[in-house]
Amino acid sequence: MPHIATPPWADALGVILLHSVWEGALLAGLLRLALGVLDATAARARYAAACLCLAAMVIVPGLTFAVTRDVVTLPTVATIVPTSAPAASAGTEHRVIARDGTSPAAVVAPVRVRLPAAPVARLRPLLPVLAFGWLAGVTLLALRLVGGWGLTRRLARRDVVVPPLQWRARFEDVARAMRIRQPVRLLCSSRIGAPMLVGCWRPLVLLPVSALAGLPPWQVELLLRHELAHVQRLDPWVNLLQHVAELLLFHHPAVRWVSARIREEREHCCDDAVAAVAGTRPYVRALVAMAELRAITAATAPHGALGADGGELLGRVQRLLGEPPSRVGAATARPVALRERAALGALLILAVAISGWWMSASPVRIMPAVAVEPMPAPLVASCGPAAARASTTLCVPLGERVAALLRDRGVDGSVLVQDVGTGALVAYAEATPGRTGRLTERRTPGSIWKLSLAAIWLEQGLGDRRVACPAQLDIAGLTIRHWGAPAVAMTVDEVLVTSCNTAAALMALTLRDRLGVAGMRAALRRLGFPVEPVTDGRATTREHDFWAPSSTTWQRAMAPRVASLRMPARDDATAWAQLALGQRVELTPFHIARFLQAIANDGMMRHPTVARGPAPGARPMRRLVSPETAQRLQAAMRRVVTDGTARDVAATLTDARWSLGGKTATIPSHVGVGHDGWFAGVLFDERRMPRYVVVVQVLGRGRGGGIAATVAAELTRAIGGTSTPRHPRPLPHVS
């Protein structure tokens, strides 16, 4: 009985599909063996192996068919039926029957399909069925995929708002630091529960609105780093090709398993990239916080988007922490919906790519929730034409303004201003002309030392632990009082904001029990502080290697006195409490500024310098704390000015374009009259980026730290400018 006429490409496609079954299973088995050999932490190697396996699954069946057949063009007016002649084992011969049923005399060259002779007769009638069934499934999934891209495009256009200016600036700075040259946009959406990346040609990162309100800024930045890591690795393009491969081989269960491994290892690669910069435990806390927000919003990433909630969260966290993986909720145990067994046809692959380009390249309609007026540029200028020819980084007009701030208040003390990014000393002044040495002399830092204690606390992963803040604490005969409102428990951030002395003492005792004397000594040395007391013979010794090598003149003229830190014995609880309050420490303003420069520079310390331009043989930057610790301390210092012990200066900063964060300290005067005061802070520009460190020391005035904070606030207005400036001309500064 003659067979129904079928086009020759249907037979060829059917053979390719048959090849793909056994070859795909073989390739998946090889991948399984490779993943078993590769270490679980080698995410990049595992990702590359999975991608190569999926690409081979697409290419190898076609290559197999191409090398095992003779390509022959058949007449378009013919129907092919088997001849009565016996077929060779290498293939089956066919002759041409005309449409009118007559048989021509000649037999045309045969189409040879190298299948085993026995199953040919049974499988050949199924080849067209397989081909047309595959095309039907591909067509259905093509429509689904196009619809998914349409939903993604709609998600990127509706209910989106422009993020705050400081977040756009920070996002751009992170992308620049990651050396991402491709423009990447950032928008906020109320329809998602976690950050996600959409688009290929013009990638767009969508940030949930709830994240800005519900997560600390440092956690949000880590999640954004994860999305930028996808862009850096060209994952959107790989993801697009992966969708095409899944559609072409939708009929093979092993393809879905391989694709799941690609997505899993892709997230692991980005997790490793973020953890390498920010640390494992802070990034894990950010992932958990994101999962909690996602559970609240019940939002997931649309089809075709790369979300920060991609992959199995429990497995990702366990992998980062080095714990054995749990099989509960593993990606391999997820059921696959029946509708995902349809696939995309070859004729619609181009249409899918064009639709993805159309979504990512089309302009986004921004619908802001409120009208945002662009922030004008700060009223600042350079130090004048002579600055470029000057041999130092000092700005003379700025130094004169700093001296005037002290002189107008009639205080004795000193002020210095240091650039965050370069470590350059920009300005300094001492209150009384002719009286020098204020900047190089050692004094007790008081509550400013709590910043160092908080840094060690956060570096030990104790950021979420709460500490009691009683009104009074008795430790081995020593009575410590907190003059603010007591609290049953508070975070380390609140300890800094309220400057709780009793909580700081309890933190020091906790660190003693956790680290011991040797561990605490190592932690303090990492922060750049000495751990040995200065004997009487070294009381006047100067630290000549404090400045960068290019600052040879300053190494002689302005080298600070050697700092002193007396390490207590383990069983001396009173001394540990005194250490927490800075009573066993003596530092110069230069030492305090160097530490704050590292905190403002995301944990990286530059050696101070006054040399203009790159310094030959300069020491490399040194990491004191992790970026997340530095950013959390920055946020706490900002709260000190807005809600804490320095909130009295808020009125001074009302119309200032720049903002201020810092820590105050008020201690008994060294001359027995009034109080000495400190303010160690950071000046943030209008994008909330740290620009300058300012350290103010006031000696012998009643309010102590309050006077010092006021001087720093006036300096913030002078450097950054104001919307209604008090001075006719802005204060010059160097960038």
Would you give an account of this structure?
With 735 residues, the protein is α+β, with helices and mostly antiparallel strands. 44% of the residues lie in helices and 13% in strands. The strands form eight sheets. Strands 5-6-8-7-9 form a five-stranded mixed β-sheet, sandwiched between helices. It has a five-stranded antiparallel β-sheet with strand order 11-10-22-21-20, sandwiched between helices. The protein is elongated, with a radius of gyration of 35 Å.
Strand segment count: 22
Main beta sheet: 5 strands, mixed
Shape: elongated
Instruction: Indicate the proportion of strand residues.
Output: 5-15%
Helix content: 40-55%
Question: Top keywords for this entry?
Answer:
single chain, 735 residues, alpha+beta, 22 strands, 13% strand, disordered C terminus
Gist of the model:
The protein has 22 helices and 22 strands.
SSE arrangement:
Layout: H1 8-37, H2 43-67, E1 69-70, E2 79-82, E3 94-97, E4 112-113, H3 117-123, H4 126-155, E5 160-161, H5 165-177, E6 185-189, E7 196-198, E8 204-208, H6 209-214, H7 217-232, H8 235-248, H9 253-278, H10 280-297, E9 306-307, H11 313-321, H12 349-361, H13 386-389, H14 396-409, E10 412-419, E11 425-430, H15 450-459, E12 467-469, E13 472-475, E14 478-481, E15 487-490, H16 492-498, H17 501-526, H18 552-557, E16 564-565, H19 573-580, E17 585-586, H20 589-600, E18 604-605, E19 622-623, H21 627-642, E20 659-668, E21 675-684, E22 690-701, H22 705-720
Parallel strand pairs: 6-8
Antiparallel strand pairs: 1-4, 2-3, 5-6, 7-8, 7-9, 10-11, 10-22, 12-15, 13-14, 16-17, 18-19, 20-21, 21-22
Helix pairs in contact: 1-2, 1-4, 1-9, 2-9, 4-12, 5-7, 7-9, 7-10, 8-9, 9-10, 10-11, 14-22, 15-17, 16-21, 17-19
